[in-house]
Structure formats: C-alpha cells, structure tokens
Specification:
By secondary structure, the chain is an alpha+beta fold. Strands 1-2-6-3 form a four-stranded mixed beta sheet. Strands 4-5 form a two-stranded antiparallel ribbon. Strands 7-8 form a two-stranded antiparallel sheet. Helix 6 crosses helix 17.
C-alpha cells in the first residue's frame, strides 16, 4: 500500500474515532427516537444503498414507526416518517429547523460553498434565496408561460418524430424553459450543453448520498491539513468541471452583450445589479447554475413519472382524456392551453399525483439541522441534529393515502386541489421549500395536459416497468422501457400544423 494512503487512512480513522466519541459523549443527556443498530465508528453509513434509498428508509419506517434515528459517522439523523411530525417540526418550528448540516465535500469543495440548497440558514442564504425568488416567484407566471407554451409545442413535435428519445425530449423541454428565462437562449434535442448540465446534477446527487464521503459523515476531518485530505483532489476535479459548465453559459451571455445580440433575461439583470459583498464569481456561477439545475431536473424527472404512471395504471388516463376531449375536442380540434386550466381540474389532480406517487428526486427528503436544543413528545435533541422527511415512506403509507402504490389522481380532487404544496412533500416543507415550486408545477401541468391529449403510453409486457425501482440517475438513458404512439392521425396532423414552428423559433 502507498505510504501516503496508509497515513491518510490511519489519521482519518483516528480522527473519526475521536469525533464519534466526542459526539456520543455530548449526546448522553438527550433522548432520541429508536436507534437503528449499526457498526462502531461508521454507524449506519454502510447500510445505506448508494442510490435509491427510498425503499430502505421506508422499510425502517415500517419497523420503527413515526420517527427513528440513524448514525452516519459522527452525525445523528432523525427520520420523520409521517406528515404529522413533519408538520409539527419542520413547518410549525421552522424558525429552528431550517438550517443545513455541514457538507465539507459536496458544498465546501464541490460547490465552492455556493449551492443554495446546502447553505446553512443565515444572511448569505437569505440573500441568495431572495435573488432566486425574484425570478421564480408567482409574480413571474406570465414570463414563464410564454416559454412553457413554446417549449411544450416543441416537446410534442419531438415525441412525434423521435419517440425513442422521449427522455431526452423531457430534458430539453425542462431545460429550455429555464434557459430562456435565465440566459435568453433555447435548448435543442441532444444539446451537448444540456447533457453536460444533467451530468453535473447527477455527479452532485451521487456524492450527496449519505455514507458516500467520509468527511461529510465526520465533518471534523475537514480540519485536517489540506495535504492530508485525500478526498479533496477528487472534489476539486468535480468542482472545476461543474464550474466550467456554468461559466460557459455566463461567458456566452457576456459575449452576446458585447456584440449586441443578447436578449433581456435574468442573467443580464443579475450582472448589472450584482453586490460583490455576496456574489463573487463562484457565487454568481452557482446561483445561476442552481437555477438551471432546479428548473430542469425536477420537471424532467416528473414528466418521466407521469409516463410511467400512465403506462402502468392506464385506467386514470381514460378519465383524463374524457375531460381533455370535452374541452379541446375529441377529434384533435386544438391543443390544451393555459386558458383551459380551470376547466381541467382532473389534470391538476394528475400533476399532484405525479409529485406524490414515487418521490424519485429526494427519496429521503433533504437534510436540515436544528439550530437550538429542542424537545418533542418525550424526545430531546441537541442543536445540530439532522432531520429529514422520509418522502418515500410517507408517500407509500396507507395511513396517509388510500391505495398508496396506485396512481390515482382522484385522491386530490378536494378543496386543496389548487394549492400546489398541499397533499404531498415533493417540494419540501417549511422555509426550505423549493423556491421554484410554482415554475415546476406549471411546467408539469402544461406537459401533462398536452402529452395526454396527443399520445398513448403503453407498457411493454416483455419489459414491464418496475415503478418501485425507477433509477434516479440515468446517465442520459431511458429510465425505463415504454411504447409511445400518437393517439390518431388527426392528433399527428395537429402536432405537425401547430408545433413545427416552435422547433425553429429563436
């Protein structure tokens, strides 16, 4: 074994042992929910699947109830397994349950400290969140609607002519909407820049999984001299790649400003109004990059879930089509539009069911940390305890939802139908709710209405879809097999007539 590797391993192990000892000693006066048995030093870190942790966490919730505790190295995580406890802690006590634990690898090194999703609660987070809210808030609906209208037509055209590339078409649709608003440009099918962006998303998600990086489980290791931080070179390599993907887009904006061809967009305003106190170049890049990622990945994955639900539970598609045909014509008279939204309550229910059905983006939620000691129902937690809402366990709990494994939009036909945050946790709870939830919901609504109106989604019986194991990370490949056909020649003609122009628009 290389002597340096041996030295790093010994130092890391000794430091981890000390960190675990100190953390355990300091927590003896506190009382946690049931602790899942683990192994010395590492705790439960080696028990977690490297991806798709939803079923693992759901099985533990089935065994331990509404709350349980796991140890990832020196970090203590409490899983919240019901909407009741999520509401009580993360929403009603959001003032102290809205920070983030330290992530020396994925935030400090890989992201240069700049990813808002991992920032601790504080002034920097509030300032960055404020900037993002300005572009993604409900006040910007009209800005996004024009692009969603255009890009969804392009989406239909891609499905008609490239049905085998449906997953790439979903990515292009989602990415092009946000790129139009942020950078003033559109994306093309199989655009290498879009592929690179989704690569950065997947690299980040891979490294963010609990137990992947020792330093994220034992943050004290980050205090080692840099030459002993054996993980740092890998993190810096990922940082430079991600930064380069973001910088290419910002440099292109600056070049278009110089030659007078840049359209008005968020990046232009951002550059004009940048406050150097908060936004150095790295922070600029990761603020804009986070917008690209958040605006692209949620929509891409959700439209894929829609298709999986349509192929495996086709009964609801019949009911959705009946309403679409009543409003837009049974013979492909016209495409659904924003003006039809109030006449299509079933589509709104479908969208909420897409977000609930298989929470494939954050299967165990996103970790938050409490900033003060707290007590709840006989338990007591020290400041710094990490909490996650167990998204998979909640979504598939029959105590929360009738027939939870079934794709059944009717469950959302209630008084909360038009409240996009009610009835599911897809966008997170409390003050860390996804800042772009409204845009994501609008993206998925338009894609849902138009895709269901124009296409059939058929499960390949020779290759059935395992809806419990749809991969989160796909490496630009289809997440599952599916047969896609246009509904009729009339629908094909409608797409040719109304959507071709969208593929050539600037």
């Amino acid at each position: 074994m290389d002597q340096r590797v041996f030295l790093y391993s010994v130092v890391g192990l000794l430091t981890a042992v000390l960190a675990r000892y100190l953390a355990t000693r300091g927590q003896k006066k506190y009382k946690f929910p049931p602790l899942v048995p683990g192994i010395p030093i590492m705790g439960n870190a080696l028990q977690v699947p490297p991806t798709q942790q939803g079923q693992w966490a759901k099985d533990l919730a089935d065994k331990y109830g509404e709350m349980f505790t796991v140890k990832f190295g020196a970090s203590t995580w409490v899983f919240l397994n019901s909407s009741r406890v999520v509401t009580d802690l993360m929403e009603k006590r959001a003032a102290i349950y809205s920070s983030r634990p330290p992530f020396p690898m994925t935030q400090d090194i890989m992201s240069g400290g700049g990813r808002v999703v991992l920032m601790p609660y504080g002034d920097r987070w509030r300032q960055t969140r404020k900037i993002m809210h300005q572009i993604l808030s409900t006040r910007q609906k009209d800005t996004f609607r024009d692009f969603q209208e255009l890009e969804s037509r392009h989406l239909l055209y891609d499905y008609l002519h490239h049905p085998d590339r449906w997953f790439s078409a979903n990515g292009r649709y989602a990415n092009s909407v946000i790129m139009s608003v942020v950078f003033g440009i559109r994306s093309k099918l199989d655009d290498p820049d879009v592929t690179a962006l989704f690569e950065t998303v997947e690299m980040f998600l891979e490294q963010q999984q609990p137990g992947i990086n020792l330093v994220d489980g034992f943050p004290i290791l980050a205090k080692l001299p840099e030459f002993l931080q054996w993980w740092r070179p890998r993190g810096l390599k990922l940082f430079e790649y991600t930064r380069g993907v973001y910088k290419k887009q910002l440099d292109n904006v600056k070049a278009r400003i110089e030659n007078g061809t840049q359209k008005n967009c968020f990046a232009v305003d951002f550059l004009k109004n940048n406050d150097e106190k908060y936004f150095n170049e790295t922070q600029q890049l990761f603020t804009l990059g986070t917008l690209m990622e958040a605006g692209s990945d949620t929509t891409r994955v959700s439209v894929g879930q829609l298709i999986a639900g349509a192929a495996t539970y086709p009964d609801w598609v019949v009911r959705a089509r009946a309403q679409l045909d009543e409003v837009c014509g049974s013979n492909a008279d016209r495409l659904p539009s924003w003006e039809d939204k109030d006449k299509l309550p079933y589509i709104a229910a479908v969208v909420k069911e897409v977000f609930r059905w298989r929470p494939n983006i954050a299967e165990i939620g996103a970790p938050t940390s409490c900033t003060k000691d707290d007590e709840y129902e006989g338990y007591s937690f020290p400041a710094g305890t990490v909490f996650v809402w167990n998204a998979w366990a909640i979504a598939l709990n029959p105590k929360e939802y009738e027939q939870p494994e079934r794709f059944w939009p009717e469950r959302f036909l209630n008084d909360d139908l038009n409240n996009g945050l009610k009835g599911h946790w897809a966008f997170g709870p409390g003050r860390r709710v996804c800042v772009g939830w409204n845009v994501g919901e609008m993206n998925v609504w338009m894609a849902t209405a138009r895709l269901l109106y124009c296409f059939d989604f058929i499960e390949d019986k020779a290759n059935p879809i395992d809806t419990m194991n749809i991969p989160q990370l796909t490496k630009n490949k289809a997440p599952f097999p599916v047969i896609i056909k246009v509904r009729s020649p009339a629908h094909a003609a409608l797409i040719e007539r109304d959507c071709l122009a969208a593929t050539n628009a600037n």
